[in-house]
Each structure stands twice: as structure tokens, then as C-alpha cells.
From TrEMBL:
It comes from Spongospora subterranea. PROSITE patterns: DNAJ_2. GO terms for molecular function: ATPase activator activity; protein-folding chaperone binding. The keyword Chaperone applies. This is J domain-containing protein. One of its GO terms (cellular component) is mitochondrion. Residues 73-147 form the J domain. GO terms for biological process: [2Fe-2S] cluster assembly; protein complex oligomerization. Keywords: Chaperone. Belongs to the HscB family. It holds the Pfam family HSCB_C.
């Protein structure tokens, strides 16, 4: 299921909680790091050996592209703050700006090492973009940064919620247009509520509660996917 199809079918549920942040003026995550992180960061440019003060895509001294492994998270790869409330427009803007600068075509006349790094970067950047554009994957990425992973087999602990999911699945299997439309409306509203629950839990660092909110997003997202599979995108 493509993100475009999901967004159209879900009437843009993934966009409603996003804060429209101004795009950063340059691709440099230094300002996003704490003073302690800046002091403890000890990487150097592979080409000129200039000490880097933070994970960067390009050396500030010789402007040589740096290995993507220095930028550990999807957020760092796009030079964005580790926040759930990133607008789709901002994510797309950052992706296009970064992709243009590190595209392999820009390195045809560079060294073999730089060409290799550019290819690696393009692959990592595409994966990061897919992660941040998807509201569920973005939430999982934020939890992963904090050491919390969600396996495909994870189950929600709320038995009442599981009964609700079973009931909704049975309703969409009827393929009755009126019933399916009602289920879709319910799911979209509940997805928005789950997003709020996730943000609330993250704001107080309640990682277990945040994890449960994401699992609910996953379950409800699957139902929305199933509905979208039944309906042509107009």
C-alpha cells in the first residue's frame, strides 16, 4: 500500500497532527545536539582529518561528503529534529534538498571513495525518507532511538481493544459500502487519537505507554489498508 493511496483513503489522517516547521537554512544538525553531545563527539573527516563537532553530511573544512554511518537515525540523515510533529511538506523539502546534493550523478568526476559514499548515502536517504513520511514508521523510529523496538508479532495488552479490532474486521469483510464507510470514519478518528496518546506518552517519557499507542496505530493502520484495498483511489 503506497503512502499516497493510504493518505487519500484515510483522508489525510497522518497530516493532521503535524506542526509546520520552517525548513532549516542549511543541512547541519549541530544545533540539534546538546552541549554534552557536542563535546563528546569525536569523529574526523576521512579526507582532511578535520575534527567534526557533530554528525554531518559534509566536512565543514574541505566540504567532502562523509560516510552516512555518522548519521545514525533517519532524522539525522535529513537534518531534522527528532520529533513526531514534522509536516509532510517539511520532510519532502528536506529530502529533495539533500537528495539533490548527494546524488551519484554529482560525483561522476570525484574519487572512487566519494562515489561509493554517494551511492551509500542515496540508499540510506531513500530509506530514511520512507520512514519519516509514514506516521507509524516515524513513531517506531523515535522509540528505537530510545531503545524500544516493536516486533511484527507484538500484541496489544488491551483485550477490549482487540475485541474492537475483530469486530471492525468482520464489518469490512461484509463489503457493504455504507458499513465500510462508517468503519473508515471511525478508524481515521481513532488513529488521530492514538497519535495524541503517543505524543502525550513521549512528552513524559512513558515509553511503555508510547509503545502501546504505536501498536494500536499498527493494528488500526492495517484495517485502513484493508479498506483501501477494497476501494479504487479516485
Amino acid at each position: 500500500m503506497s503512502l499516497r493511496r493510504l493518505a487519500l483513503c484515510g483522508r489525510g489522517w497522518s497530516n493532521r497532527s503535524a506542526i509546520r516547521l520552517p525548513a532549516p537554512s542549511n543541512w547541519h544538525p549541530y544545533s540539534l545536539m546538546t552541549a554534552r553531545d557536542q563535546r563528546e563527539y569525536s569523529q574526523s573527516c576521512w579526507k582532511c582529518d578535520h575534527r567534526l563537532r557533530c554528525p554531518v553530511a559534509f566536512c565543514p573544512d574541505c566540504e567532502t561528503i562523509q560516510p552516512p554511518k555518522q548519521l545514525g537515525s533517519a532524522f539525522q540523515l535529513l537534518g531534522l529534529p527528532e520529533s513526531y510533529e514534522l509536516s509532510p511538506e517539511l520532510i519532502s523539502c528536506r529530502f529533495k534538498a539533500v537528495a539533490k546534493r548527494i546524488h551519484p550523478d554529482q560525483y561522476e568526476n570525484k574519487s572512487e571513495e566519494e562515489r561509493s559514499i554517494s551511492v551509500q548515502y542515496s540508499s540510506e536517504l531513500n530509506n530514511a525518507y520512507k520512514t519519516l513520511k509514514d506516521p507509524i514508521l516515524r513513531a517506531k523510529a523515535l522509540l528505537a532511538i530510545r531503545g524500544v523496538t516493536i516486533e511484527d508479532s507484538e500484541q496489544v495488552k488491551d483485550l477490549e481493544f482487540l475485541e474492537e479490532i475483530i469486530d471492525l474486521r468482520e464489518k469490512i469483510q461484509t463489503k457493504d459500502d455504507a458499513i465500510v464507510a462508517k468503519v473508515r470514519a471511525v478508524i481515521v478518528n481513532e488513529l488521530l487519537e492514538n497519535q495524541k496518546e503517543f505524543l502525550s506518552a513521549m512528552s513524559v517519557n512513558d515509553l511503555e505507554e508510547a509503545k502501546q499507542a504505536v501498536i494500536k496505530l499498527i493494528y488500526r493502520g492495517r484495517i485502513l489498508n484493508a479498506i483501501c484495498e477494497q476501494e479504487p483511489v479516485r
